[in-house]
Specification:
Strand order of the largest sheet: 1-2-6-5-4-3-7-8-9
Distance between the termini: 40 Å
Oligomer: single chain
Number of helices: 19
Largest sheet: 9 strands, mixed
Strand content: 5-15%
């Protein structure tokens, strides 16, 4: 029997099928194995599958053999996860566009993958000022010493400073690359890359030997946001990849913090824009920041969740389906509909009943959270 992971890989090889469409396929058919055997009419029922996409699927699917493809891929890429794997990062799986294949190198820590250890993303400009460097080092050090894993993109500037500071403080760090996990970019970070492999992870959605490409880096920013429970933007001009990461963080329901700067400082203009749009301030009192970040709910482990489950009232199948869609993070209404596969009206009715039972609470912006 061909494993589900092989179908994630096979579908990802078809041109025009990206992470969002893959997610919709999986939600519509239940498994990508079922979707693989669906005909054109059935596939046409999935949002986003127009005539051209359907033609590509028909033409290319017949030439692909999932099991053989998966075996060959394993030989060329020794370490990777698909959303079908239990070790696939839980927080990333909650986003609308999880990578169908996530490659990794380094030391895996299962608590990070399960969402039980807090991970915070730190991003910013490739040309930071002394002010930005100083605060990046201080905050990364404080986070590492307090048990947080620092996530960034190993780019020059703020990214590099955050990784180095976390490692020097004896903490863990994760680098999300826009290349294959075996390609070091920028090359000047080769020593940093080696250090990360011994005290953290290097991850990428691109297979081994993939060279740098300017289109890859904005896309990888969604992975930084998806892995993290909060994003800290240290310094960023108005046109900056860090702002793309912050946008993804907002879409995923993550908290966004920004370091304030002077009004006439070019590297601070993006941060000031984020603050004007409602991002939280990074202030001098780091204890307050650590308290706020520590208050972000984590995904409970088995032992922690045993007692509450014993008190959970018996729910109808429909209500239980909606409850099963929740983790500890707030979820947008549309995402809950996608997760459950139920009609929007049924989900709305179920959420209202769960609110009245005190099991779910509604937040601004049509978002809901487990109480």
């Amino acid at each position: 029997m061909v494993e589900e992971g092989a179908y994630w890989l096979a579908w990802a090889q078809i041109s025009g099928i990206g992470p969002v469409l893959l997610r919709r396929l999986q939600q519509h058919f239940g498994t990508l194995a079922t979707a693989w055997n669906a005909n054109k009419v059935q596939l046409g029922e999935v949002e986003g599958f127009g005539f051209q996409t359907l033609e590509k699927v028909v033409q290319q699917r017949s030439r692909l053999h999932p099991e053989q493809l998966f075996t060959k891929h394993q030989q060329e890429n020794s370490h990777f996860w698909t959303p079908a794997d239990a070790d696939y990062p839980r927080l990333l799986l909650e986003t609308p566009s999880p990578p169908p294949i996530l490659y990794y190198r380094g030391e895996v820590e299962l608590q990070e993958n399960l969402g039980q250890k807090p991970m915070v993303g730190i991003v910013g400009t490739r040309q930071p000022s002394e002010y930005g460097i100083r605060w990046t080092r201080q905050i990364s050090t404080a986070l590492a010493k307090n048990g947080f894993t620092v996530v960034s993109g190993m780019a020059e500037g703020i990214d590099t400073e955050s990784h180095i500071a976390a490692l020097k403080a004896g903490g863990r760090t994760i680098a999300v690359l826009g290349t294959g996990v075996d390609v070091i970019y920028p090359h000047k970070n080769r020593d940093l890359y080696k250090q990360i492999l011994t005290a953290g992870l290097v991850v990428s959605e691109y297979p081994t030997k993939t060279p740098p490409d300017r289109t890859h880096f904005p896309r990888r920013n969604r992975i930084i946001a998806g892995l993290s429970r909060a994003i800290l933007v240290m310094e960023a001009p108005l046109k900056s990849g860090a702002l793309i990461t912050a946008t993804y963080a907002n879409e995923f329901g993550r908290d966004v913090y920004a370091l304030p700067g002077r009004l006439d400082d070019h590297p601070s203009q993006g941060c000031l824009k984020l603050l004007n749009q409602g991002a939280s301030f990074i202030l001098k009192e780091l204890d307050e920041l650590l308290t706020l970040l520590g208050a972000i709910p984590q995904i409970d482990g088995v032992e922690a969740s045993t007692a509450p489950e014993q008190l959970m009232p018996t729910l109808s199948p429909e209500l239980q389906t909606v409850m099963n869609a929740f983790s500890c993070d707030p979820l947008p209404f549309d995402f809950i509909v996608q997760q459950t596969g139920m009609a929007a009206g049924s989900v709305s009715s179920a959420l209202l009943q769960l609110e009245l039972m005190g099991l779910v609470s509604q937040l601004p912006g049509m978002r809901y959270q487990k109480s």
